[in-house]
Design brief:
This protein is α/β, with parallel strands linked by helices and about 500 residues long. It is about 50% helix and about 15% strand.
């Protein structure tokens, strides 16, 4: 656990000064720029970028206290009224040197938090002292190549970066701030063939400066046993000497060992989390253990079922590869969820009651989106029922009975009701009764569409124009087909019971 005082001590008194420190220490979990209208989360260290007056600063401190944030960082002078508000709210108040750039402070504080988390994860591992954490390694490599360095994984996510920022450009700033290379930056380097060279080579790659102001890069692939684990990027002023370039490349195997150990530790942790979640989903797990192990608040949650292949034809999508990428995005990317597991080829995630819409929107915002279905919100101990609902909703998405690529159980009740009724009627052989088999046989040669025509006519009672529009035919053609249906079957469509029975049969055919 890293407290506010711990962060201040690590950064040092030159830059940060603790003005108010509550008696009860609160762990710092993230660094967040405070924005108007945006509430803090528990453990956030809020940067008061927009708090330009004592009144605004006091309001920010009060909001931080209400949401159990770890503290607020402000530039001097800090009015006595703001200090009183901090003591009253039980929130730490930190003063940062007035000339400090907020962007640089974000980098520095996140470096401190990530380094502290890495040290906590390393525990008593004897190898950790020899290899050091990735941030210390990035600093060492930066000194070696005399340039700022980032260490990234194979998906261009930033795992660590050096403290020195004497050479930088907008691409590096956006990469570190977003914790991954932005799409436009990736496209820029992809057009230069950088990633093709990374996938094949082992030596350092030099990329000259670009017309838009992007500074030169020296890039080294990180490999182990032929597998590309990631890469190191150095922002340089110009070509570096062969000796420095070789030394930069020689650091690759050391970083690779660290990444392998980190991945092994992460994989073991994921397996433990997944096993705990599977117990919840099948109704055999302990809710109390799940709350502690998975970090789930004791509040209503939804189970979300995710089909990685979406609606793509079988064989056209590497479902396993997409599923692994989705798993990685959910657990380490936009949501950082622990409660994620795979069962029978489907990914399951547990999300908060109200976070489902944003979760679905983020997952499906791609050219070939997965299918995402959510069960209704329920208590932790009843997640097995939410999973059953998510599974049923996912089946309807797969069958195309629900529009779009995502759906929530409670919003799909009409389709669910019809599908369940059709399933029950289908198992009872309802569709084989009366005139429907006659119409189906007549349609076999492809010259008539009696079944579809009757279904549309029954769905739009008294409105032949709407029925004809649904079938994309002229209303007179619809009327002609209905007369032929009556002649062929001998049924009276004036009888309301006959119409209801026919509709049940046709729904059964359509929805099962």
């Amino acid at each position: 656990m890293t407290t506010v005082q711990g962060v201040v001590d690590r950064v040092g008194p030159t830059l940060l000064h603790a003005v108010v420190v509550p008696d009860e220490a609160v762990a710092v979990t993230d660094v967040v720029i405070a924005e108007p209208g945006r509430h803090a989360a528990a453990g956030d260290l809020l940067l008061g970028v927009a708090a330009n007056t004592a009144k605004e600063a006091a309001a920010l401190v009060q909001m931080a206290g209400e949401h159990k944030a770890a503290g607020v960082v402000l530039k001097p002078p800090i009015a006595s009224s703001v200090q009183r508000a901090a003591r009253s709210a039980g929130v730490a108040l930190i003063e940062v040197h007035g000339q400090t750039a907020w962007a640089q402070l974000v980098w520095l504080l996140r470096t401190v938090l990530d380094a502290a988390e890495s040290e906590n994860d390393e525990g008593d591992d004897p190898a950790s002292g020899a290899l050091g954490d990735l941030f210390r390694l990035a600093d060492a490599v930066a000194a070696m190549v005399d340039a700022p360095v980032t260490i990234e994984d194979a998906n261009s996510r930033v795992l660590a970066y050096s403290a020195r920022q004497d050479i930088t450009d907008p691409a590096r700033v956006s990469t570190i701030m977003g914790r991954r290379q932005p799409d436009e930056v990736l496209a820029k380097f992809r057009s230069k063939g950088v990633f093709r060279q990374l996938s094949k080579g082992r030596s350092a790659i030099f990329v000259p400066a670009q017309a838009d102001g992007t500074l030169p890069r020296l890039i080294v692939p990180i490999r182990m046993g032929g597998e590309l684990l990631g890469s190191m990027w150095a922002v340089v002023r110009d070509r570096v000497s062969d000796e420095r370039s070789a030394a930069f490349a020689d650091a690759g195997p050391v970083v690779a060992l660290h990444l392998l150990r980190r991945r092994a530790r992460t994989d073991a942790q994921r397996r433990r989390f997944a096993e705990t979640l599977r117990g919840l989903l099948d109704g055999t797990g302990s809710p109390r253990l799940a709350v502690a192990e998975l970090g789930l608040p004791d509040a209503p949650h939804r189970v979300v079922a995710i089909d990685a292949a979406g609606r793509a034809p079988s064989g056209e999508v590497d479902a396993e590869g997409v599923r692994l990428a989705l798993f990685d995005r959910i657990t380490t990317g936009f949501s950082r969820l622990r409660a994620v597991a795979e069962l029978d080829g489907v990914l399951y995630a547990v999300v908060g009651k109200d976070s489902w819409p944003k979760f679905a929107e983020t997952l499906t915002a791609h050219d070939m989106p997965p299918l995402v279905a959510a069960g209704s919100a329920t208590e932790i101990g009843a997640l097995a029922s939410s999973r059953a609902e998510a599974d049923e909703t996912l089946l309807l998405l797969r069958a195309g009975l629900l529009e779009g690529h995502s759906a929530a159980y409670e919003q799909a009740w009409t389709v669910l009701a019809l599908h369940r009724a059709a399933a029950a009627a289908g198992s009872a052989g309802v569709a084989e009764l009366g005139p429907i088999p006659v119409l189906r046989k007549a349609d076999e040669d492809g010259t008539s569409c009696y079944v579809d025509t009757l279904y549309a006519w029954l769905r739009h009672p008294g409105d032949p124009r709407a029925a004809a529009e649904e079938l994309r035919i002229h209303p007179n053609t619809l009327r002609y087909r209905i007369r032929k249906i009556v002649e062929l079957t001998g049924v009276s469509l004036e009888d309301p019971d006959i119409r209801m029975a026919l509709l049940v049969q046709l729904v059964t055919l359509r929805w099962v």
